[in-house]
Write a structure and sequence with these properties.
This protein is α/β, with parallel strands linked by helices and 274 residues long. Helices cover 35% and strands 12% of the residues. Strands 7-6-5-4-3-8 form a 6-stranded parallel β-sheet. It has a two-stranded antiparallel sheet with strand order 1-2. α4 (128-136) packs across α5 and α7 packs parallel to α8. The radius of gyration is 22 Å and the shape is globular. The relative contact order is 0.19. The model is unreliable at 1-63 (pLDDT under 50).
């Protein structure tokens, strides 16, 4: 009798397990969602190290663009990850910032390098003088959403369009005639709707191919080593001039520029991408 009961119980358990569907892993975009809204999966958990300068005076960001999300072409929905030429492109995200952007601009000027600045709408509105400085020194502008919303691509097309147009309006309030032909999705969390809306508004989606994770505050040495070892013709290098303590990025740039300018032609991304 004991053997029969055990056999019946085993059969019932096996039948119950067979009725539970297997979990299907979702597409990773580097973002997670919690009760208090979207967060970056690559967000530094400990904040800035003790003894480092205070963070940007601009709006606090929930995270940074970085290495984990969407580095493969399957998840980019057509976003550009290279410059499209043998030239190397430096890009700076999340600004402008009154503390770090002027330092970046000064170093680029010293080495006669033009770059691309992916600016956050709120920061553009708060610091129009820095937007003007970026354009006056020959750099290219890129829309980086109004408030670095990593979940923007999951919203409705109308909400995406309103966000991108609001950001463009803040930029053009500072530089009315400056072309804005690039869009970079916060966190690299690309979706078909955000790519589609950006293209409808005349902007080419822009990703990256070299990411030293400078938002993680690894130190100037590690940022420098990553960029110099991974850079190759056509690379788009992701760096940050805002969104937190960026002194390590500025210090790394002093080491990066002499090497890169000796090995590559550097360019601002064109204002008439094909």
């Amino acid at each position: 009798m004991t053997v029969v009961v055990a056999a019946l119980l085993g059969s019932a358990y096996a039948l119950g397990r067979s009725l539970v569907p297997d979990q299907v892993p979702g597409l990773s975009t580097g973002a997670t969602t919690g009760a208090d809204g979207p967060h970056y999966a690559d967000q530094p958990s400990g904040g800035e190290p003790s003894g480092t300068p205070s963070a940007s005076t601009g709006p606090a960001e929930t995270g940074q663009d970085g290495s984990a999300p969407n580095t493969g072409t399957d998840n980019l929905f057509g976003a550009h990850a290279t410059s499209g030429s043998p030239r190397l492109a430096l890009t700076f995200d999340d600004g402008p910032d009154p503390r770090y952007t002027p330092q970046v601009l000064a170093l680029l000027r010293e080495y006669d390098v033009h770059a691309t600045f992916c600016v956050v709408g709120e920061n553009a509105q708060n610091h129009p003088d820095l937007i003007q400085a970026i354009v006056n020194e020959g750099h290219t502008l890129c829309n980086h959403s109004w408030h670095h919303d990593v979940g923007l691509g999951a919203r409705s097309a109308d909400a995406i369009r309103a966000d991108l147009l609001r950001t463009n309006a803040a930029i053009r309030a500072a530089v009315p005639n400056a072309p804005i032909v690039w869009y970079r999705q916060p966190g690299g969390a690309w979706t078909y709707p955000v790519v589609s809306v950006a293209r409808q508004l005349g902007m080419t989606p822009l990703h990256w191919s070299v990411d030293p994770s400078d938002w993680e505050l690894p130190g100037a040495g590690k940022i420098t080593a990553t960029v110099l070892t991974q850079a190759e013709p056509g690379s788009v290098v992701l760096l940050h001039d805002a969104g937190g303590n960026r002194q390590g990025t500025v210090d790394a740039l002093r080491r990066i520029l002499p090497d890169l300018t000796a090995r590559f032609e550097l360019e601002a991304l064109p204002t008439d991408p094909t």
